[in-house]
Sequence to fold (1196 residues):
Amino acid sequence: MTDSFSSSDDIRSGGELAHLQLVELPGVMALERGGELPGVVVGYETYGELNEARDNAVLICHAISGDSHVARHDGDDLPGWWDELVGPGDKFAIDTERYFVICTNVLGGCSGTTGPRTVNPQTGRRYGAEFPVITIGDMVETQRRALDELGIGKLRAVVGGSLGGHQALTWATRHPDRVENCIAIATSPRLTSQALGFDVVARNAIQTDPHFAGGQYYDEPEQPATGLAIARMLGHITYLSTEAMDAKFDPDRHSPRDIATAFEKKFSVGAYLAHQGQKFVERFDANSYVTISLAMDLFDLGRTRRELLSTLRSSRCRFLVVSFSSDWLFTPAQSREIVNALAALDRSVTYCEITTTAGHDAFLLVDEIGQFGPLVAARLDAALETNAAPAELRANDRRILDLIEPGKSVLDLGCGSGRVLSELRRRGHDKLMGVEVAQEKIIIAASRGLDVIDYDLNHGLPAFDDHQFDLVVMSATLQAIEHVETLLDETLRVGRQVILSFPNFAHQELREMFVREGRSPKASNRSSCGSSYGYEWYNTPNRRFPSIADVEDFCRAKGVTIHRAIYLDTGDTEYGREITDDPNLNADTAILVISRES
Amino acid sequence: MTDSFSSSDDIRSGGELAHLQLVELPGVMALERGGELPGVVVGYETYGELNEARDNAVLICHAISGDSHVARHDGDDLPGWWDELVGPGDKFAIDTERYFVICTNVLGGCSGTTGPRTVNPQTGRRYGAEFPVITIGDMVETQRRALDELGIGKLRAVVGGSLGGHQALTWATRHPDRVENCIAIATSPRLTSQALGFDVVARNAIQTDPHFAGGQYYDEPEQPATGLAIARMLGHITYLSTEAMDAKFDPDRHSPRDIATAFEKKFSVGAYLAHQGQKFVERFDANSYVTISLAMDLFDLGRTRRELLSTLRSSRCRFLVVSFSSDWLFTPAQSREIVNALAALDRSVTYCEITTTAGHDAFLLVDEIGQFGPLVAARLDAALETNAAPAELRANDRRILDLIEPGKSVLDLGCGSGRVLSELRRRGHDKLMGVEVAQEKIIIAASRGLDVIDYDLNHGLPAFDDHQFDLVVMSATLQAIEHVETLLDETLRVGRQVILSFPNFAHQELREMFVREGRSPKASNRSSCGSSYGYEWYNTPNRRFPSIADVEDFCRAKGVTIHRAIYLDTGDTEYGREITDDPNLNADTAILVISRES
Fold:
């Protein structure tokens, strides 16, 4: 029972939302699945000030159990559900001294915005189960109209996690003219069948609660608290990873904690779950839970790549997608589906999978916010795109840069912290994309304003279309790859040409050591070809040890044309020394320009 | 909605169990958690005949929703829940022409054995919720007494999946004198907190159903069908993997199937789940579900390795443990905990993780039965231990065998199909264990009657105690290991001595090729050192390419003593030719005997 468990319901018990504001939308709202709602009211909170240029507004979208109270307004205020991400000063990724933040309660909710608990003006009684089926599209339409009423046009960003991510993605596709950045965290193009199955069970638990009374329980002495608590308990399990569950629940496995209330007594095993269920019942409306979870279930950007491409094609903004390794409700694989489609559409997109045992809940937790926060801050900061400091280049980088003509589009596989890409951007290239697996390097590259996606090259390049880039660069990466043939085929499919740079493992220093000493060769005095030579046989991260001749043989055997070859003794010079005499013996690094065309 | 979805409830709707037999236990049964049950009746079915030696009885234990009907008795019979595993003839792993199979309904169940629906002889009314809390130990005690009544002493094996596995493990520890083999499939030492959480939610759904009536619903017009259906639907989700859920549910995601009954209409989304829920309600008792799931939750062989060692120490039998890669309810990691403890206790144990997308349900499915069935058949077949055909040995194997003194205990890391181990067994060694990752090799080794565990050597050897074996053999395995230092430390910890055999990557053929041609060397004419030399630089499965000098340097640097070194030119001879002149140049294979002691 640690404080780190900060799902929104944990931090919102007792106390009204003192800063809640309301705006009534004019006219009647037609709904996507039929029906309409008159006189919709939207509850919202704001932080910071809209600047004169009116270009610093950030819309934050909440998850199923959240509300408009994304952060404290001041020291006396109740905690917000993203207190560690949103606040005044540059220690917050979403700095409310810089951005004007608005967070609305969703349509169908129960914390300010029109929902099932609202009195239907046409009947004079609460909607209850007569509240119409709504969609994520309807939620976004409500937000759009509310922003219109408030005079907010362009959004610097729409940001959300889980259901909030569904809203952010919908904004990006429905209102491409209004959204500059879409930040979608722990989300998906649609629920898995498993997640949908849990929702079905949860709604059934609510709707078959005898106190549900067909949804018209508001004036009854009893509420469907049991059903809602069961739904909430089930939800809690799905928000946590197995590891996180063990850490949290094992202590009271065989000796439940003290049970404080009659409600908890009813659920006497798993006191913590019951406690969560009860707290939720006190602040949430069962009909809202049914309404919102059904909207999530209906959300569907597409099951296939083709469908996703079709849905996402209308977007124009830049994207940041973040997933969490142990999230089994909204899996990293689902985030990758979105990212792959965006990459194929040439959208600006950065993607990072944060390694954590916290499960889906990670998007709300302080440790993980510490990890993805810098990515959010970088994506929001338009100035980075032009003002980032230049990177320090190595000899190899300089030679590769020389081979790239102005204006060419470039995909850099194993881009590291983005040295080559940031120099290309400085030189005016506008279609640039990096691929990297190391989280710390992704963050550095992103903080240079670059687009980098977190991607294991051993799985090929399914994200990208044929000849999507003029050039694919793969520098000091080949030797770490398991599936060399597949990846090389893939680079040649995705790039019109490929610039392949690699260390020569038949360099004379290595050869001599091997022949004279009969030992697995290494050399640590050559820094420019990376540290490829500097490892012991038993701990090198390299998997492949080709010579220049090996790679050139391989290209010929595969029908690949070598258009240009530069052989270098990188030594410790800035630019390296070009080798023409027996490069397979004398060069430590080769740079080949290759393609399928002759 | 394929037929391959064969959880037991799918195949038992309508129709009585025609072959159910009943036995009444004499006296009163005292229960582990207090209380007692008088006049317990056990429902069971049998297949085949008990032989004269009375040594062919196999007890099969069912899972939460199963019953005694493990297989058809004849062509007219209803399908059984393990029809593909149990039947007459050697195409069945549990051949009822060879073994006498008995399957009992569990205590607390509702298909023949005393449970909550039984009339309490002391009150004259059904137990209902007054049925006492029972444990897996009580279930096993009921089985033991029933077998006593039926005159069955020794069990050739106790076999079970899921809850059935809990019973099998309990038999092994409680009645070591009666069990020769324990076959525990898709099971665990205890439930994860996640699994326990789902059970809490499921029981709450049942117990808060208004028709539950405190458990005394039997004479009421309405039953707690809704609660039980919710519990069952939730269970179904946990039995399937995400992939299996998508395959099964995606077709009716947005257009539910035709809804046939009023019950299904109530659960109008997820028609399939609802259908499963309804079928279950028709044949299962809600109180039994509560009783049995609580017994599962209470099952606990130990959370820590120390606790597991303590619990499993009383066992004497041979074990087969099988897990499924996509089972997230009873995870492979949990099976490994059991296996690791058994291995540390020097118990005979074979373990295999079957690769499948079917989830926990895999233990009931025909495809996966096809995979683990041969392991079950091998473990049951006592004759294999002495009668298996001898393996074909390579030069390297023969040299290693020469180094092993009679009677020594041996752990073979990367044992393949068990060539060396089966020869050692033929020579009378009795403490032998193999480690292998390739499923097809594990099956061959097991069919030779050997103990093999499925284990990734990159994670060290946490299963084993210090100096647990006289010798650890690692042959033609070193070059495929990522974490060489850790693994070598581990082998030296677990074995008093280590026999390390590896290909010499500085052999003159390779050296010359590298120096003359400057190409990554390979040679395909040397079969005896494995195929280590025969790969291309871009597709070799080898990760490490040490020379003899490298490995010997490494040993010296790590303070490891080389007691003996044999250098071979294995060529294509049966025994290889020993090399004394510059082995680092002339030998293709080295065999080192090493230890931490000088």
